[in-house]
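During the second year of the project, the team shifted from modelling isolated chains to modelling whole assemblies. The rationale, set out in the original proposal, was that interfaces cannot be judged from single-chain predictions alone. As a representative example for this report, we include one of the complexes processed in the last quarter. Its constituent sequences, exactly as entered into the pipeline, are reproduced here:
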Amino acid sequence: MSFNTFGKLFRFTTWGESHGPAIGCIIDGCPPNIDIKEEDIQIELNKRKPGQSKFTTQRKEDDKVQILSGVFKGRTTGTPISLIIYNKDMRSRDYETIKNKFRPGHADFTYFKKYGIRDHRGGGRSSARETAARVAAGAIAKKVLEKKIGKKFRVIGAVTQLGILGCDLNKWNDSTIRKNPFFCPDKSIVKLWEKYLLSIRKSGSSCGAIIEVRARGIPAGLGAPIYSKLDMDIASAMMSINAVKGVNIGSGMNSAQLTGEQNSDEISQKGKKLIFKSNNAGGILGGISSGQEIVISFAVKPTSSILKSRKTIDKFGKNTTISVKGRHDPCVGIRAVPVGEAMLNCVLLDHYLMHKAQCS
Amino acid sequence: MSFNTFGKLFRFTTWGESHGPAIGCIIDGCPPNIDIKEEDIQIELNKRKPGQSKFTTQRKEDDKVQILSGVFKGRTTGTPISLIIYNKDMRSRDYETIKNKFRPGHADFTYFKKYGIRDHRGGGRSSARETAARVAAGAIAKKVLEKKIGKKFRVIGAVTQLGILGCDLNKWNDSTIRKNPFFCPDKSIVKLWEKYLLSIRKSGSSCGAIIEVRARGIPAGLGAPIYSKLDMDIASAMMSINAVKGVNIGSGMNSAQLTGEQNSDEISQKGKKLIFKSNNAGGILGGISSGQEIVISFAVKPTSSILKSRKTIDKFGKNTTISVKGRHDPCVGIRAVPVGEAMLNCVLLDHYLMHKAQCS
Amino acid sequence: MSFNTFGKLFRFTTWGESHGPAIGCIIDGCPPNIDIKEEDIQIELNKRKPGQSKFTTQRKEDDKVQILSGVFKGRTTGTPISLIIYNKDMRSRDYETIKNKFRPGHADFTYFKKYGIRDHRGGGRSSARETAARVAAGAIAKKVLEKKIGKKFRVIGAVTQLGILGCDLNKWNDSTIRKNPFFCPDKSIVKLWEKYLLSIRKSGSSCGAIIEVRARGIPAGLGAPIYSKLDMDIASAMMSINAVKGVNIGSGMNSAQLTGEQNSDEISQKGKKLIFKSNNAGGILGGISSGQEIVISFAVKPTSSILKSRKTIDKFGKNTTISVKGRHDPCVGIRAVPVGEAMLNCVLLDHYLMHKAQCS
Amino acid sequence: MSFNTFGKLFRFTTWGESHGPAIGCIIDGCPPNIDIKEEDIQIELNKRKPGQSKFTTQRKEDDKVQILSGVFKGRTTGTPISLIIYNKDMRSRDYETIKNKFRPGHADFTYFKKYGIRDHRGGGRSSARETAARVAAGAIAKKVLEKKIGKKFRVIGAVTQLGILGCDLNKWNDSTIRKNPFFCPDKSIVKLWEKYLLSIRKSGSSCGAIIEVRARGIPAGLGAPIYSKLDMDIASAMMSINAVKGVNIGSGMNSAQLTGEQNSDEISQKGKKLIFKSNNAGGILGGISSGQEIVISFAVKPTSSILKSRKTIDKFGKNTTISVKGRHDPCVGIRAVPVGEAMLNCVLLDHYLMHKAQCS
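Output from the structure prediction step:
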């Protein structure tokens, strides 16, 4: 049971609401003697923080993280690491006018039905602001994996589809990703995406996105069948991100259309090197990593807070309409990239530790 | 930690290998005083059992289940329910010739890398035979939900795409599903699927499938954010099924292409009735059920055991080829339908109990 | 897996070190719509806080708690409750001279062996300062139970043995307990305890204690056999408290000396009232509450930090001696009373929720 | 959540009732490549099985165990190990006359209050027959630890007090323990115990016992503070055994009476050897093993099924009396020795794996 905890051996528990005094997390099960500085975490948080371009929300949060425990003289001690990020730029008044209405597509209605009470300010607990805490946890997972697995290890994500516009995956370039405001891996499409998203924004609408995350340097053998399969935990991790509605491993949904010989990745040995001819499996077979690159993708639905007027009801059951003003991402999928990376780092470390426990 | 356990409050733990003496499961956390007979479980097992048509494997297993504990005079006692199904029709000799080879697309390679040992007979633990145990657990979950939620509750699944052939979802008919060997909900396409799958089989190949599962009569409020979201647990459940590579909730991967106004399901009240204009959310908002029909789908990759010759290596690292003879499903996706239903029943009951614990 | 988390459905995760900037906890799974004010928590913390009499450590901490999340307009929302207590009166310099030595009876040696690193200041994570966070969590559990079970519910603890001096349990008086600095329930012995503990303190030594905690108004039926027995979880809870070495349920260790007819509590019905002739079971049979008063006790070993010189080694393996100066409780058992109460409140609420989930 | 599961990384789930067709367990998380034969498990089961002397119940069960999964060609595969033991010698008719009465001291009343239904035959799920499944799990844990830690590892338990009669712990002799029907470690007291227990039996009564279990060869560093302390998990394990009412670690309850200098075990180094002057801590400091012998003890209350007539009520609330005929142990504590050993083996392996995961 873990409503607000993710993970098995490397576990993080997040807390906080969009307009509360602060948000944060506790990381438990982190190996000792890992070098961790606040800057290591800040680098990752900065990728996700709002207000960095005209394509994201204009809420200004510097998302400055503080380490409150678990690190002594710059190294982890094996005890719980408590991280806190104070909220700064809340405009709770923006939400006064809609506090009794349920925004369609948001969790307003369901939280109210479940709990009979909800913090309406900025979505409260259901706000994507919570994901900052995950990114912080992921930064620590990343540091541990870099030490344990070594330099060949890398997790990197990108937006591969923005609304109706895809990109050319063959042009994927790691260094391109950080050089544009969309985390787009294909330089040739960036301009088009820019125009498209500006027009979406101007029209008071929003769009969805597909994010792909890849993990390199992962040894074969991670994953614990049957009910702790690596792909199962990845699906779980990604689906837990706000607004995610679909998850693929490797060829994903598309694998339904393949034949057996198209799909199964042939194996051969060339000297000491094992070669898979293709990677439909996304690096995972029977729930266990094969040593191939792990490739996963997920879809983020369009931001539900839009200027366009929508029909809804209020909490008294009366029909009404809503138009959500204020500061919102025209495509929440963009800022989901560092979140997807963080979650994959956490899942991989979790399985790394599990594997070490049982099989080393 | 739960390598072979699924669930939080309603939990089942499965055990057994394809060619071991038996398979089974223990169900823990089942409410007391529920009427359970072996026949209730058998009905569900019969949907999944092999050898029922020319479109599934010819292995003959009657999959007869026995209740060993937890049920007294036909009613559950609240103590663990142990179920056992003896294996009958194993032909372990079929696997002798390939025991040192890794079948591409299967878990042979990864199990060996992880554990340094594997039961090669019929895939051992990684065989889809394990799913019989889940179907048994799901049968019990279904009985509990029927008693607790009442008659309006129903979970039903279907194959909505067979390889490259889809079907018309507008023609979905519950009663059609059980009347064809594909669990196809659209009567008009059945003949075509039949021809298609026979040709796939004859060519020694296989194909994938998409399965859609729907749950009706689910009250609003089930699901526990952030890390026990209902959709997260559903994704996890479906991805745990053998050969599943993608999971969608509602519009799923397709939601990336929608605009905000297309995607967010408008809400209105008509008398006492709450109406959602559409169901892109698949009945889940912020990880909590909205009271709409829950609609999920998942892709099953094509059977990896095919007659066509494939390149691979053996466990000594030597290049070789493999052609898998014996008895295999040309489309394993078909028999995944009752498995998907069972998993959804289990997740829903689990969340029903969690909700009762915290919010009643 | 839960290194720093306690509980199943009502869960708290603590963090923080004795000399870090703060300590705190996250409470997850709390039911919504419970009235919680910081003062409710403060009342319980004040029972435990140091520096209140000459019989406890002179470290001055006001242990002022802040609620950072999960409470909206004075009521719980069902989302995680984050509590923080800043540390104020650390004198880390006191620990400089002994930072390389292992204090006998403390966790210095074992933490170092386990993690290869430790925060030596005030015992770091192993300090009893962590128990403030539990007391805070227990305060919330208490509020929930008072609302759910009603006024008859009460958990109350006392010191029933101070070093070699016992007290007369027949003279147990609830109101006496809060009126003396020992949480002693027997007014007639207080003066003697006072003299005894002063002499212990003057001699630079310390003494152990036995704490008894009673829970009234608990309905029959709480507890979930086999491996979530109520007594099992209570034993676990109490043994997790710093310096606890033994736990009894009802007659406890003494039950070994009883005969069957002495031990088994006879049952009779008088009108509508069920009467147990005795309470050797401590209110728990087969791991489930019987409706009798729940009575448990535990032993706290004497404070290991004493002025008297003791032989030990340093972290380089050299023989040395140690005399621990600074501010210490002559009997840490005293301040364990509110901690024991808090833990029992948490276990009871946890089982209350579990019972509701499975059996209501 | 784990009503019928014990452990975190090495987990076992038990099932079955006293008079059901069988009992058994599933072991999950066992490392691969461990040699396991049914005989290895049988040896341990034989220590616990009934009907071996006139001092235990006369129910005849050979407790023959079968391995149904998880072991391939004599070695564990890392997948779940399912064990089954068929019940043979049930005399359910013996329980017909008392099926509506609640036996005082037993779980009859509380199970009925909790679940509203109970299997009355032989205590159903609450019967100590369940402990056979634990002993089987413990046998596997032992094999793993012997391989991982090596020859110096040994867990051994004994009865150190039988009713009102203690024994001389200074005369503890491992080889004596298996040579008398009481698992008594002190040869000089055996005759007296024999006379005493025969007289107890003849009088139609029963007596309690204290069991001590010791673990040798355990490296320093096992245990995970704060809420997975080694002693906490041991207390939990022992308290889960039927009829256990108290648990001590090292000096246990007695440590309350010690002074700081008496209690804290002084440390010194002699060459390469670390020496603790005493072992009041029972080998555990701050929840982590110190490398000393782990010493724990627990009290088992007297058998509640006695011939002597006792007052009770029936399930209709009517006053009545009960005298339990049939086959019962005059001291259930005796057969708790192998159960305590098994549980300690399981806890130690669990922590061994946890330590390897986080700290290796």
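Chain C has eight helices and 18 strands. The first strand of chain C starts at residue 5 and ends at 6.
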